[in-house]
Protein backbone atom coordinates (compact mmCIF):
# COMPACT_ATOMS: atom_id res chain seq x y z
CA UNK A 1 0.00 0.00 0.00
CA UNK A 2 2.82 2.43 0.76
CA UNK A 3 4.10 2.17 -2.82
CA UNK A 4 0.63 2.95 -4.16
CA UNK A 5 0.24 5.84 -1.75
CA UNK A 6 3.71 7.16 -2.51
CA UNK A 7 2.78 7.08 -6.18
CA UNK A 8 -0.49 8.87 -5.37
CA UNK A 9 1.42 11.52 -3.42
CA UNK A 10 3.96 11.92 -6.24
CA UNK A 11 1.14 12.51 -8.72
CA UNK A 12 -0.91 14.65 -6.37
CA UNK A 13 -1.55 18.16 -7.62
CA UNK A 14 -1.58 20.06 -4.35
CA UNK A 15 -3.03 23.07 -6.15
CA UNK A 16 -6.23 21.21 -6.96
CA UNK A 17 -6.62 18.57 -4.24
CA UNK A 18 -8.87 19.66 -1.41
CA UNK A 19 -7.70 19.58 2.20
CA UNK A 20 -10.39 16.95 2.84
CA UNK A 21 -9.01 14.70 0.08
CA UNK A 22 -5.52 15.07 1.51
CA UNK A 23 -6.87 14.27 4.99
CA UNK A 24 -8.51 11.08 3.66
CA UNK A 25 -5.26 10.03 2.00
CA UNK A 26 -3.29 10.55 5.23
CA UNK A 27 -5.96 8.80 7.29
CA UNK A 28 -5.55 5.68 5.13
CA UNK A 29 -1.88 5.37 6.03
CA UNK A 30 -0.22 3.83 9.04
CA UNK A 31 2.51 5.70 10.91
CA UNK A 32 5.04 3.28 9.44
CA UNK A 33 3.80 3.95 5.90
CA UNK A 34 3.94 7.71 6.40
CA UNK A 35 7.49 7.47 7.74
CA UNK A 36 8.53 5.37 4.72
CA UNK A 37 7.04 7.89 2.32
CA UNK A 38 8.57 10.83 4.16
CA UNK A 39 12.06 9.29 3.99
CA UNK A 40 11.99 9.69 0.25
CA UNK A 41 12.29 12.58 -2.12
CA UNK A 42 8.61 13.45 -1.64
CA UNK A 43 9.22 14.65 1.92
CA UNK A 44 10.11 18.25 1.20
CA UNK A 45 7.49 18.49 -1.55
CA UNK A 46 4.77 17.33 0.86
CA UNK A 47 5.93 19.63 3.67
CA UNK A 48 6.11 22.64 1.34
CA UNK A 49 2.62 21.90 0.02
CA UNK A 50 1.14 21.60 3.51
CA UNK A 51 2.80 24.75 4.79
CA UNK A 52 1.90 26.51 1.53
CA UNK A 53 -1.77 25.95 2.29
CA UNK A 54 -1.51 27.27 5.81
CA UNK A 55 -1.93 30.90 4.71
CA UNK A 56 -5.14 30.03 2.81
CA UNK A 57 -6.54 28.06 5.74
CA UNK A 58 -5.84 30.82 8.23
CA UNK A 59 -8.91 32.20 10.02
CA UNK A 60 -8.07 35.86 10.74
CA UNK A 61 -11.29 36.49 12.70
CA UNK A 62 -10.34 33.76 15.18
CA UNK A 63 -6.77 35.00 15.55
CA UNK A 64 -7.92 38.53 16.37
CA UNK A 65 -5.02 40.78 17.35
CA UNK A 66 -2.57 37.93 17.93
CA UNK A 67 1.03 38.67 17.02
CA UNK A 68 3.24 35.61 17.22
CA UNK A 69 5.93 33.62 15.49
CA UNK A 70 5.36 29.87 15.58
CA UNK A 71 8.35 27.69 14.75
CA UNK A 72 7.64 24.17 13.47
CA UNK A 73 10.40 21.56 13.70
CA UNK A 74 9.24 18.58 11.69
CA UNK A 75 11.18 15.36 11.33
CA UNK A 76 12.60 12.31 12.92
CA UNK A 77 15.38 13.50 15.22
CA UNK A 78 17.20 10.16 15.03
CA UNK A 79 17.58 10.59 11.29
CA UNK A 80 18.66 14.23 11.57
CA UNK A 81 16.04 15.09 8.97
CA UNK A 82 14.40 17.89 10.90
CA UNK A 83 12.96 20.63 8.70
CA UNK A 84 11.99 24.05 10.04
CA UNK A 85 9.12 26.25 8.91
CA UNK A 86 7.81 29.36 10.62
CA UNK A 87 4.33 30.78 10.73
CA UNK A 88 4.08 34.49 11.49
CA UNK A 89 0.67 35.64 12.66
CA UNK A 90 0.24 39.39 12.77
CA UNK A 91 -3.17 40.91 13.61
CA UNK A 92 -5.22 39.06 11.03
CA UNK A 93 -2.53 38.05 8.58
CA UNK A 94 -0.49 34.89 8.29
CA UNK A 95 2.79 34.32 6.47
CA UNK A 96 4.75 31.09 6.26
CA UNK A 97 8.46 30.84 5.55
CA UNK A 98 10.77 27.89 5.17
CA UNK A 99 13.79 27.86 7.41
CA UNK A 100 14.73 29.29 10.76
CA UNK A 101 14.82 33.04 11.26
CA UNK A 102 16.75 34.91 13.92
CA UNK A 103 13.50 36.04 15.54
CA UNK A 104 12.58 34.45 18.86
CA UNK A 105 9.39 32.38 18.46
CA UNK A 106 6.54 32.61 20.95
CA UNK A 107 6.12 28.87 20.64
CA UNK A 108 8.10 26.04 19.05
CA UNK A 109 6.33 22.82 18.06
CA UNK A 110 8.49 19.75 17.49
CA UNK A 111 7.07 16.55 16.07
CA UNK A 112 7.82 13.70 13.70
CA UNK A 113 6.74 13.56 10.07
CA UNK A 114 3.87 11.14 10.66
CA UNK A 115 2.63 13.07 13.68
CA UNK A 116 2.77 16.33 11.74
CA UNK A 117 0.78 14.99 8.79
CA UNK A 118 -1.79 13.45 11.11
CA UNK A 119 -2.09 16.72 13.04
CA UNK A 120 -2.52 19.03 10.05
CA UNK A 121 -4.93 16.65 8.33
CA UNK A 122 -7.23 16.52 11.35
CA UNK A 123 -6.41 12.87 12.01
CA UNK A 124 -4.83 13.44 15.43
CA UNK A 125 -5.75 15.33 18.57
CA UNK A 126 -3.01 17.80 19.56
CA UNK A 127 -3.77 17.48 23.28
CA UNK A 128 -3.48 13.70 23.13
CA UNK A 129 -0.27 14.03 21.10
CA UNK A 130 1.17 16.44 23.68
CA UNK A 131 0.46 14.16 26.62
CA UNK A 132 1.78 11.15 24.69
CA UNK A 133 4.95 13.17 24.04
CA UNK A 134 4.50 12.94 20.28
CA UNK A 135 4.20 16.72 20.14
CA UNK A 136 6.69 18.80 22.08
CA UNK A 137 5.83 22.39 22.90
CA UNK A 138 8.34 24.99 24.05
CA UNK A 139 7.17 28.48 24.92
CA UNK A 140 3.63 29.80 25.18
CA UNK A 141 1.40 26.78 25.90
CA UNK A 142 -1.80 28.81 25.71
CA UNK A 143 -0.89 30.02 22.21
CA UNK A 144 -0.14 26.44 21.18
CA UNK A 145 -3.55 25.37 22.49
CA UNK A 146 -5.31 28.08 20.45
CA UNK A 147 -3.60 27.30 17.13
CA UNK A 148 -6.22 24.80 16.03
CA UNK A 149 -8.79 27.61 16.23
CA UNK A 150 -6.71 29.85 13.97
CA UNK A 151 -6.78 27.46 11.01
CA UNK A 152 -9.39 25.44 9.11
CA UNK A 153 -8.31 21.89 9.88
CA UNK A 154 -9.76 19.38 7.39
CA UNK A 155 -11.75 16.36 8.46
CA UNK A 156 -11.24 13.05 6.69
TrEMBL record:
One of its GO terms (cellular component) is cytosol. InterPro entries: SCP2_sterol-bd_dom, SCP2_sterol-bd_dom_sf. SUPFAM superfamilies: SCP-like. It comes from Streptacidiphilus fuscans. This is SCP2 sterol-binding domain-containing protein. Residues 70-151 form the SCP2 domain. Signal peptide: none annotated. PANTHER family: SCP2 STEROL-BINDING DOMAIN-CONTAINING PROTEIN 1, STEROL CARRIER PROTEIN 2 SCP-2 FAMILY PROTEIN.
Amino acid sequence: MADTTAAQLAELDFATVSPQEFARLVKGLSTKEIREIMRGELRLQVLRAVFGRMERQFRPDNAGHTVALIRWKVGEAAEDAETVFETAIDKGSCAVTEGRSEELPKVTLTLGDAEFLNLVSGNANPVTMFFARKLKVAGDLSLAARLTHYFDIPKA
